[in-house]
Amino acid sequence: MPTRISNLAQRIGHLVAVLLLVSVATFGMLELLPGNLAYSILGEGAQPEAIARVEKELGLDRPLPERFLGWLGNALAGDLGKSYATGETVSHAIAQRLPVSLQLMIAAQILALLLALPLGLWAGYREGGTIDRLISGSAFGVLAVPHFVLGIVLILLLAVWLRWLPASGFVAFETDPIGNIRSMILPSLTLALVEAPVYLRLLRSDVASTLREEFVVVARAKGLSDWRILLTHTLRPSSFSLVTVMGINIGHLIGGTVIIETLFALPGIGRLLIEAINTRDLMMVQGVVLFIAAAFVLVNLLVDTIYAVLDPRLRHGR
Amino acid sequence: MTGEALLSISRLGVRFPTPRGELSALEDVALEISAGRTTAIVGESGSGKSVLSRSILRLLPRKAILSPDAAIRFDGLDLLRLDARAMQRVRGRRIAMVFQDPMTSLNPVRSVGAQLAEGMVLHLRLDRAEAGRRAVELLKRVGISSPERRLEQFPHQLSGGMRQRVVIAMAIACDPELLIADEPTTALDVTVQAEILDLLRRLQQEQRMAMILVTHDLGVAAGHSDDIVVMYAGQVVERAPTRTLFREPRMPYTRALLGAIPGLRDAPHARLSTIPGRPPTVYGTAQGCRFAPRCGQRQPRCELDGPALVADPTGNLLRCWYPAGAGA
């Protein structure tokens, strides 16, 4: 038990250190940009007085460490500043866009697992056989297709030809729950098809190697059927690489997916970031990047704790 | 060899495809196990004893090729011709198995209790509470202290000897008629070995089950079996009641094995007697007796023609052209 607590403390210490580094990097990113921040806000040919005013407003006239600490303090309090372009606060913008990215992420993960778990188990069970070659081969084929091509093909198939779903656009859940779900199917499916092959292949190879373990022979000797052995004895010890990669993906996806959100016109975090970059809305870029980094680090902390749930050996630390 | 055999194996051959050709792991194996008796299968590593013990429950890898006329009969059932479901009803219920390495025999991510209970839930249709109660009883019977606590634990929290006790408890959970113990003590410390062997013998007598004890250790076989089957290079070369075999071993390989056991009356620092050479790995089909290259009594005939396994008047089996004590 004491080792568990000190482990957790150690992890949280790590987390704080990483977040601090990230904040330094995010803050430094803007400092390192060529040119004057006030110029880029006001545009070419701005009056020197106006520039001085903006600099004072943003605190650019103060020394760097002081500005950093001030910014960090605000960020910790949840205040990431304001957009120059729209005047909207950065945290408000993130709060507006986050649900869309989260919904996309969760739906895509569920779909990807629905595809990858049964197929990966089956392929691993029949390692080297026809079924395995069929499943692994198609997975590899899908893996080789870029996101946007997959998306376009799905739009063509399900929206243009079959007319089952809208081709793009987003409907908020509050206004029309059914419309919301319909608008999310194509983007989630596209994303799921991108990720499922990776999950499938990881699971397949781990299942195949778990099935070579002696305890699987013991389970067979007990009279358990093959599918029962797959579900009760094989899946859990075969899911570590899958969980790791899923954690990395989820961390990424909280920050939105630029390509999918753009293709399907979804107002998620990825679009927010791209728009901010395009309009040189630097406060927004800074805030969103910090948020994405923090989300990534937090999700990976969560994954570390899931390992302990999956593998009792990590719980008791021997 | 009195009474009807519980398990009888005949003409069992097993081959594995390899890049160098088909490896012959077992050839023309015949075996009979009577109810309530312990038969030791003895041989060097690579002699096919593990393949033999696994083939009874059909636990060989899928690529294994069985000889077409092989038969394994268990209490009227033709095991090699059962469908998958019928075979599952035999496994763990009527024939159970204990494996060599307790470190790898248990699933590291499942609790001892869950692994102990699943066989009983499956075969005896017990509910969780009943299976839990019986699991506690089983752990007591195999000599594990504070069984209630052990059920909650995971394999990595137990010592090797304790894990093997759990594996044995798992095996006897459904009162099998035959227990196959495949080198159950090879991976354990010497002191623990004796305890586990005594435990197996006690359980075998209490449950009146038949037992197959696979071992490379003739000493183990001597103290814990009623009959001994000696294997060499995938073949049974001699079978006799344990006492007979030790008193008058007839096949030269058996004699060499017995001669290789160091005795207490040997002079100090006397050289250990060994059998020169190594057992052959047979690809395809071999000509002549498989032991001939290492045999002290080899005759020209041995290298040309392999002897068959034949029964002598007392029913003991022997595979040798020139056995000791024949016509001498």
TrEMBL record, chain A:
One of its GO terms (cellular component) is plasma membrane. It is found in: Cell membrane. One of its GO terms (biological process) is transmembrane transport. Its main location: membrane. PANTHER family: DIPEPTIDE TRANSPORT SYSTEM PERMEASE PROTEIN DPPB-RELATED, PEPTIDE ABC TRANSPORTER PERMEASE PROTEIN. This is ABC transporter permease. It comes from the Bacteria. Keywords: Cell membrane, Membrane, Transmembrane, Transmembrane helix, Transport. It is a multi-pass membrane protein. Belongs to the binding-protein-dependent transport system permease family. CDD domains: TM_PBP2. The chain crosses the membrane at residues 12-30, 106-125, 137-164, 184-203, 240-264, 284-310. PROSITE patterns: ABC_TM1. Residues 98-307 form the ABC transmembrane type-1 domain. Gene3D superfamilies: MetI-like (1.10.3720.10). InterPro entries: BPD_transp_1_N, MetI-like, MetI-like_sf.
From TrEMBL, chain B:
The keyword Membrane applies. Keywords: ATP-binding, Cell membrane, Membrane, Nucleotide-binding, Transport. It is a peripheral membrane protein. Residues 9-258 form the ABC transporter domain. It is found in: Cell inner membrane. SUPFAM superfamilies: P-loop containing nucleoside triphosphate hydrolases (SSF52540). It comes from the Bacteria. InterPro entries: AAA+_ATPase, ABC_Ni/Peptide_Import, ABC_transporter-like_ATP-bd, ABC_transporter-like_CS, Oligopep_ABC_C, P-loop_NTPase. It holds the Pfam family oligo_HPY. GO terms for molecular function: ATP binding; ATP hydrolysis activity. Its main location: membrane. GO terms for biological process: peptide transport; transmembrane transport. One of its GO terms (cellular component) is plasma membrane. Belongs to the ABC transporter superfamily. This is ABC transporter ATP-binding protein.
